[in-house]
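User: Okay, second chain of the day. Same drill as before: sequence in, structure tokens out.
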Amino acid sequence: MDYTEMQFAFKVYEKALNKRSRHLIRTPESVREAEEAKYTLQMAVNDVLAETREVATMIRTSPY
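Assistant: Same drill. Structure tokens below.
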């Protein structure tokens, strides 16, 4: 793994941590523990990568 790949992986990890934290903060406190077990970091990483794929597709198909 080269430096660029490591940097990309770290950025994805940071964004996933933030996404998961925001999700849990927005969850009502009464169900937060259950949601914490349900919405894993892996799910957040997958969400971030899906967003990245969408942006890459938009860039690739852009006429500019």
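Residues 3-61 form one domain.

User: Thanks, on to the next one.
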